[in-house]
Amino acid sequence: MINGSDQIFRITYEAFSKFSNNLNRCRTFEEIAECFTVNLKYLLNYHIFRATYCRNDINVHLVSITGKTTVTIDKQPGYLEYEKELLNEMVPKRWSDLSSFQLPGYFYSITDEQPELWGWNFANEDRKILISVLSGARKRFNQKDITFLKLVSDNLETKLLELCLIKELDEKNNIITAINRDQQKVIEERTREIAIKNKTLLEISVLNAHNVREPLSRILGLVNMLDDEETDELIKEVIPLLKTSANDLDLALQDVINHATKDLSKLKA
Amino acid sequence: MTKKVMLVDDVPISNFIMKKMIHKVAPDCQILDFTLPEQAIKSIEENNPDLIFLDLNMPVIDGWKFLYLMNENNLENKVYILTSSTSELDLQQSKQYKNVVGFLVKPVNISNLPDLLKVME
Question: What DSSP character marks residue B108?
Fold first, then answer.
């Protein structure tokens, strides 16, 4: 035999199951807002439902005001005063007198008797989510609703974490892509530099070969001359020229060595 | 009639070698040798040599400039390019000049010289 309160519990559970399925499929913050707009009213009585979720520098505020939900993402946490109290005191709170708080405009758009503001700080490890509910005489939040509120909070937190992680992943991917692009550019630049250097080196080596070949060709010419005819007169004439040419060859080679050494030490520097 | 050969090379020893070799194979040849190409170019008109041995790698006026100046002045004397080292590029470039009859690498082999000098006949 199912009694009345069990019946209500069953209906609410079905509503929660719908909400949960719906939330699961969300891929964007806008879709989460839409899911809350559609489903939350079947789970809780509230005028305003507010969730504040922070992860690193992503701060998500979800505000559902009967029938309409908005999600905003900020770099700054943007805690409300009572949320700061929840953060500091780490216990659930309930306020009947809201006059001491400075609240956003939408809080004042609700006109109902016996307003009550409920607040919870569900923190675990590095994630924290603050949930608050404004209820009133017409829409009375009940102690019994806390069970579902916790479930809603858990589901929401898991989904927000998922979206934040995807967002972080996308950003990191963009950074990696940018780094890769930069590296590609650097590689192309270096390759071009090396190609230019190679060309210069090749030109130098050709020039060197020419400069060395010149005195060598003279030595060969003079020696060939002696092959044919070795008169003392010719030998006397040719020997000093051979000497000069050999010296020129030596100078040309020294020049090559000096330049190569200089270029080499430049490359090392 | 005596043939005239002109040598243009900034290195005197190179001219000396050529002079000795030519003298040996063609003792009747008159040889005009220059280490300054600017003087050589002036003397072409005056002496009208039958053949010029021209070095490529020279300061101020190099062999290419020399050929260009000859062309400019309508001097059609035959030229052997005589260079200590050469590249395919030089060889191709020399073909632009109709008066270039050959491309030689130093040192010239004396046994080839009589044939080389035949272009004067």
Answer: P
Number of domains in chain B: 1
Which 3 state secondary structure label does DSSP give B87?
A: coil
Collapsed DSSP state (helix, strand, coil) of residue B22:
helix
Rounded to two decimals, the ipTM of the complex is 0.91
Which tokens is A15 given?
Answer: 């509503």
Pairwise CA distance, residues B100 & B83, whole Å? 13
Using CB atoms, which residue from A221, A229, A244 is nearest to B17? A221
> Please, is A51 exposed, middle or buried when counting C-beta atoms within 10 Å of its C-beta (0-12, 13-18, 19+)?
buried
- Cis peptide leading into B107, omega within 30 of 0? yes
For the segment A69-89, what is each residue's pLDDT rounded down to a tens digit? 999 999 888 899 999 999 888
Indicate which CATH number applies to the domain containing B110.
Answer: 3.40.50.2300
**What span, in angstroms and rounded, lies between the C-alpha atoms of B47 and B95?**
25
Taken in order A166, A61, A79, A47, the sign of the CA dihedral is: negative
Residue A217 touches partner B, C-beta closer than 8 Å: yes
Residue type, B84: S
Give the mean model confidence (pLDDT) for residues A208-217.
90
Answer yes or no: do A206 and B20 touch at CB < 8 A.
Answer: no
**Bridge partners, residue B100, by sequence:** B79
Residue of chain B with shortest Cα separation from A243:
B13
d(CA A64, CA A44): 12
CA angle, residues A101, A60, A173, in degrees to nearest 5: 155
pLDDT in tens, B22-73: 999 999 999 999 999 999 999 999 999 999 999 999 999 999 999 999 999 9
For residue A3, pLDDT beyond 80: no
- Dihedral of the CA atoms B42, B48, B52, B57 (nearest 10)? 10
Would you state the structure tokens that stand for residue B18, as one six-digit string? 């050529």
d(CA A133, CA A115): 10
pLDDT in tens, A128-161: 899 999 999 888 998 888 989 999 999 999 999 9
Q: Which domain, by its residues, includes B42?
A: 4-120
A179 interfaces chain B, CB cutoff of 8 Å: no
Domains and CATH numbers, chain A: 4-175 (3.30.450.40), 182-268 (1.10.287)
Are A214 and B87 inside 8 Å of each other by CB? no
